[in-house]
Design goal:
heterodimer; A: 3 strands; B: mainly alpha; 3 helices; 68% helix
Chain lengths: 564, 94
C-alpha cells in the first residue's frame, strides 16, 4: 500500500463492488480485508493530504484531512470493522452492499473539504442507508424507511439551497466555520440539524432505526448522526443556540425512553440524548467543549453500538425486542448479558468506562463557561441515562421476571464484535490518554480526580437507589405493549388526514364547478333549441307588410335625427 | 422447578444485592464528609448535593414519564391499524 495514496472512501466503494460480485461465503471476509486495507491507506496518508480540483470555475477540495476529520475517519473504520464482524452470518447481498456504500459515504463526508462534495456524500448517506431499513422486509420497515428517506432528502435539499446561497454570498465553497450570520448559513444549520435529530426533527431516528434488521441498526447508529455531529463541529462551533438545543435534546428523550417498550427504540431515544451532550459541547465552542463533544461522539459510536449489538443479538435469537415480552435471558445468553452491562456502564459514564472520560469534559466545559442551568440539566440527563439505558435495557432484557424464553447464546461472530467493542470501552475508560492525544485540540485534561469520581459515583448509585425504591414501592411504570405518540404523530395522523381532506375538498369543488358549468351549457343549448324550434322566436315567419312598415319607421327616425 | 435455583432468582441473592447497594450508597454519602472536593459551582459544595439530585431527579423523571403515558400511550398497532382499517374501508367503499 505504501506509496499509493487513495481517497479514504474509495476502498469502501470498491468493497461494495466486490460484495456485489462476490459469492455469499467470501463476501463477509472480503469486506473485513477491505476495511483493514482502507484503514492502512488512511494511516499512511500524509498529514495534510488533500485533493483539489475545479468544476465550472468553482474551486473544490474533495479531500481534506485534518485532526478533526482524521479522528472521525478512524472512528468510522473501527465502527465498520465491528459492524461487519457482527453481521458476518448475514447472507443478504443488498444489506452488505448497502452497508459498505453507507460506511464509505460517511468517510467521504467527513473528508470533504468543500460543501458541494459534502452535499454529494450527504445524499449518498441517505440513499444507501435506507436499504438497511428496508432490509427488515416488513410493511412497517418499508413505511418507516420511506419516512426516513423523506426526512433525509429534505435535509439534503436544504443543504443544497444553503450551499448555493453560500456560494453566491461568499464566492467560495470551502467547508470551514460558517457561523449563523446569513440566510445561507441558516439553511445549512437546519440541514445539519435534521441529521443531528434536533427536537421536532428527531422522529426519523426513533421511527426508523428500530425497524431495521438486527445488524442494520448497528451500522445506522454509527454513521449518519455522527457525520452530522462532525459537520456541526466544523461549521458551527461556539454557536450559543446549540447549547440550549443540546440541553433540550439531552433531557426530553429520556422521558420517552422510560415508557418505551421496544428496547431498540429506547436506545434510539438515548442516542438523541447523547447527541444532546455533543451539541452542548460544540455550542460552548471552547477547546475543552469541542474536545469533549468529539471524544463523546467517538465513545458513543462504540458503546451505543455495543448496546444495539446486544439488543440485536436478543432480537436475532428470540425474535422479540419488547421489554414486556423479554426477561430472564441471562440464563440463556450470559455472555451477551455481561457485554450489554459493559455497554450500559459505559453509556452511564461509570468511572473506568469510556463514557466517563468524555462526558465529564462536556460537563466541565459547561461549568467553566457559566452555563449553570444547562449544567444542571445535563446532570439530570446523566442520571436519566443511567436510569433508562444503564438499568432499564439490561434489567428488562436479561433479568426482571423470567419470560420463560430459552434460546441459544448469540453466534460467535456477534460475541466477537461485542467483545471488541466492550474491550474498547474499557480501554478508553482506563487509559483515556489514548483518545485524548488524538482530539482536535491538545489537552492536559484529566477525568480522574477524586471529586469527579466521587460525585459521578454518588449520582449514579443514588439513581440506582431511586430505581430500586420505585420498583419496591410498585411505582415504576411496567413495560406495556404500546405506541407512544411523539412529534411523528403530526405527520402520521393529522397531516395525512388533512391532506386527504384537502384532496377530497378539491375534488368536491372541482366536480361542483364542472357540474354547474355543464348545467349552464346545457341550459344555453336548451334555450337555443327552444328558440329555433317550431314556434320559437327565430323560426317565426314575418309578413312582408310588417317588414315594410318597420323599414319605413326606421327611415323616418333617421330623417328626424338628420334635422336635429 | 430448576428455574428457581438460578442465581438471580434466589431471594437471598436479591437481598444481598440490595443490601450491598444500600451500604455503598451510605458509604458514598459518608465520603462526602471525609473528602474535600474541589467545586466550581456553589451548589456542588453542599453536602449530599449529587446523591440528592440524582435520587430526586430520577424519581421525578419516572413519575413524569408515567404521567405522560396518560396522554401519549396508544395501543401497539396504533399506526398500522390505521392503514389496515383504511384499506378495509376502501374495499368496503368499492
Amino acid at each position: 500500500m505504501v506509496g499509493i495514496e487513495l481517497p479514504p472512501f474509495l476502498l469502501f466503494y470498491l468493497g461494495a463492488v466486490i460484495a456485489l460480485l462476490g459469492g455469499a461465503t467470501w463476501r463477509g471476509p472480503a469486506m473485513i480485508v477491505v476495511i483493514i486495507l482502507s484503514a492502512l491507506n488512511l494511516w499512511q496518508l500524509p498529514a495534510f493530504y488533500g485533493l483539489e480540483t475545479q468544476l465550472m470555475g468553482m474551486e473544490l477540495k474533495p479531500i481534506h484531512i485534518d485532526r478533526l476529520s482524521l479522528l472521525f475517519g478512524y472512528l468510522f473504520h473501527i465502527a465498520a470493522f465491528i459492524s461487519v464482524i457482527y453481521s458476518l452470518h448475514v447472507k443478504d447481498k443488498m444489506q452488505q452492499v448497502a452497508a459498505m456504500l453507507y460506511a464509505g459515504s460517511a468517510l467521504g463526508a467527513v473528508f470533504a473539504g468543500d460543501l458541494l462534495t459534502l452535499f454529494v456524500f450527504w445524499e449518498m448517506l441517505a440513499v444507501t442507508s435506507v436499504f438497511l431499513i428496508w432490509a427488515g422486509r416488513s410493511d412497517k420497515a418499508y413505511s418507516a424507511g420511506m419516512r426516513y428517506l423523506i426526512a433525509q432528502v429534505i435535509s439534503g435539499m436544504l443543504l443544497l439551497v444553503g450551499v448555493i446561497l453560500y456560494y453566491q454570498h461568499q464566492g467560495n465553497l470551502m467547508f470551514s466555520k460558517i457561523g449563523l450570520d446569513s440566510v445561507a448559513s441558516w439553511f445549512i444549520f437546519i440541514a445539519f440539524g435534521i441529521k443531528c435529530a434536533f427536537p421536532f426533527f428527531h422522529n426519523w431516528l426513533t421511527d426508523a432505526y428500530p425497524e431495521a434488521t438486527p445488524t442494520g441498526t448497528v451500522f445506522l447508529s454509527a454513521f449518519t448522526t455522527k457525520v452530522a455531529v462532525y459537520a456541526m463541529a466544523r461549521g458551527f462551533p461556539g454557536t450559543e443556540m446549540l447549547v440550549y438545543i443540546g440541553a433540550t435534546m439531552a433531557c426530553f428523550p429520556i422521558f420517552f425512553a422510560v415508557i418505551e417498550n421496544d428496547l431498540r427504540r429506547v436506545l434510539a431515544y438515548s442516542l438523541i440524548n447523547q447527541i444532546g451532550f455533543m451539541m452542548v459541547g460544540i455550542g460552548i465552542g471552547t477547546e475543552l467543549g469541542i474536545n469533549g463533544a468529539v471524544a463523546h461522539a467517538f465513545n458513543d459510536v462504540i458503546f451505543k453500538g455495543l448496546l444495539f449489538m446486544s439488543m440485536g443479538a436478543v432480537l436475532y435469537r428470540t425474535g422479540r425486542i419488547n421489554g414486556s415480552e423479554l426477561g430472564g435471558l441471562y440464563k440463556s445468553m450470559p455472555k451477551t448479558a455481561v457485554l450489554c452491562i459493559i455497554g450500559a456502564a459505559s453509556i452511564s459514564a461509570f468511572p473506568l468506562f469510556s463514557g466517563f472520560v468524555s462526558k465529564s469534559m462536556i460537563m466541565s466545559a459547561a461549568l467553566k463557561d457559566n452555563f449553570d442551568v444547562v449544567w444542571l440539566l445535563l446532570l439530570f440527563a446523566s442520571a436519566g441515562v443511567f436510569h433508562h439505558a444503564g438499568i432499564k435495557i439490561p434489567y428488562f432484557a436479561f433479568f426482571a421476571h423470567d419470560s420463560g424464553i430459552r434460546c441459544k447464546e448469540a453466534p460467535w461472530n456477534m460475541l466477537l464484535a461485542m467483545s471488541i467493542a466492550a474491550a474498547l470501552c474499557l480501554t478508553i475508560g482506563i487509559f483515556p490518554q489514548l483518545l485524548y492525544q488524538h482530539l482536535p485540540f491538545a489537552t492536559d485534561y484529566s477525568a480522574y480526580d477524586v471529586s469527579h469520581i466521587l460525585t459521578q459515583t454518588q449520582l449514579l448509585f443514588f439513581s440506582a437507589l431511586a430505581f430500586v425504591w420505585l420498583n419496591l414501592k410498585g411505582m415504576y411504570p411496567p413495560e406495556l405493549p404500546s405506541t407512544n405518540l411523539d412529534v411523528d404523530w403530526l405527520y402520521r395522523r393529522p397531516l395525512p388526514r388533512l391532506l386527504n381532506a384537502c384532496g377530497r375538498g378539491c375534488l368536491y369543488i372541482d366536480q361542483t364547478a364542472r357540474n354547474s358549468i355543464l348545467k349552464l351549457g346545457h341550459a344555453f343549448e336548451d334555450r337555443l333549441a327552444n328558440l329555433h324550434s317550431s314556434g320559437g322566436i327565430f323560426s317565426r315567419t314575418i309578413s312582408i307588410s310588417s317588414m315594410v312598415a318597420w323599414v319605413v319607421t326606421l327611415l323616418a327616425v333617421l330623417l328626424v335625427f338628420r334635422f336635429i | 422447578m430448576s428455574q428457581s435455583q438460578d442465581f438471580f432468582d434466589r431471594p437471598a441473592t436479591l437481598r444481598l444485592i440490595l443490601n450491598s447497594l444500600y451500604v455503598i450508597c451510605a458509604l458514598l454519602v459518608g465520603l462526602d464528609f471525609v473528602i474535600h472536593r474541589h467545586t466550581e459551582h456553589p451548589w456542588e459544595g453542599l453536602y449530599g448535593f449529587y446523591p440528592i439530585y440524582g435520587f430526586i431527579g430520577c424519581v421525578i423523571l419516572v413519575l413524569v414519564a408515567k404521567w405522560m403515558r396518560k396522554g401519549l400511550m396508544r395501543e401497539e398497532d396504533y399506526y398500522q391499524q390505521t392503514r389496515e382499517s383504511k384499506t378495509e374501508n376502501t374495499h368496503g367503499g368499492d
